[in-house]
Amino acid sequence: MENVTESIGKALHDKFGDALVKQELIVDFPTFTFKKESILDVLTFLYDFEIYKFQFLTSICGVHYPDNVKEEEFCVVYQLNDMVKNQRIRLKVYTSEAKIQVPSVTSLFSTANWLERETYDFFGIEFIGHPNLTKILNMDDQPYFPLRKQYQLEDETRDDKDDSKFGR
Amino acid sequence: MSTENKDIIESKVNITKAPEGIEGAGFFATSLDQVVGLARKNSLWPLPFATSCCGIEFMATMASHYDLGRFGSERLSFSPRQADLLMVMGTISKKLAPVVKQVYLQMAEPRWVLAMGACASSGGIFDTYSVLQGIDRIIPVDVYVPGCPPRPEQVIDGILKVQELVGKESLRRRSSPEYKELLASYGIE
């Protein structure tokens, strides 16, 4: 698997140079971190890549790292599959909380439409170029982005929860 | 009909007892409240609002083994306009809450609500940002059935509790100031 990471990483580095920030092998999962401006170009390149053709976008999700250095509080993770050769890779781009914008990849993958809406719904990450970036799972007037870590997971309207009654 | 057959029918078929009243040759006098209550409680039309596993238990309750038809509720109404009893069974997310409320508003008075299971009653294990913490936050509830999910016996017990309320309800209750105040507290006219 290290060979796979090396060969894909070399091709990506030759093509994109400094836009490839980091390459690593996490257990058995080749992972590449890019600058966010280049994500659409990278996905387009990998779509018709010569060794593997990553033509299936399995998922997009957001991650919130409140303790990260500034400019890198939010991460968007793309997981791609080559169905023919059974190979998967993960791409990451980081974005800042102040300017929380990432280019949309809906022009390449239609499935990114719903996935990006979901990521927007839960993390508030704006995908520039998305045709209809509205909430998809939460109620329309949800006043905050619930998976950001500054909000508690529990329902905040409960007033009957007294820890002392549960021995806590 | 032979005497033997008549005995079998009388021993196996339950017929609702007549309310208290004055009986004489060719007449029977009682209060209107009791007659209407008797008729209503033994012909409740439930509207099943089933969203999860409680709905499966409700299906068992309706099926032949437990047979809710024995209590006069075999006719499910899938239109709120003809339903008497709204049975909310399962987790109601905050996004679904306006739908539950709309269904309740579409029901004609008198209407009753039964919250079945932990989720409908209190949010259950789903103490989270997306789940309504009990349907009594949006509509008034008459009977809560605990359990996760409740067994069909518990559902039948809940229905019998609703029947008890229905049978004893005064004809004036729905126009009383207390009832109007209750609805107003939920923002319902």
Textual characterization of the structure:
The complex is a heterodimer of chains A (168) and B (189). With 168 residues, chain A is of the alpha/beta class. Chain A has three helices and seven strands, in the order H-E-E-H-E-E-E-E-H-E. In chain A, strand 6, helix 3 and strand 7 (126-128) form a beta-alpha-beta unit. Chain A is elongated, with a radius of gyration of 18 Å. The termini of chain A are far apart. Chain B has a single domain (45-185), classed as 3-Layer(aba) Sandwich (Rossmann fold). Chain B is built from seven helices and six strands; from the N terminus they run H-E-E-H-E-H-E-H-E-H-E-H-H. A four-stranded parallel beta sheet of chain B has the order 3-4-5-6. In chain B, helix 5 links the parallel strand 5 (112-116) and strand 6. In chain B, helix 2 (32-41) runs antiparallel to helix 6 (152-168) and helix 3 (53-62) crosses helix 6. Chain B is globular, with a radius of gyration of 19 Å. The chains are: A alpha/beta (168), B alpha/beta (189). Chains A and B meet through loops of A and loops of B.
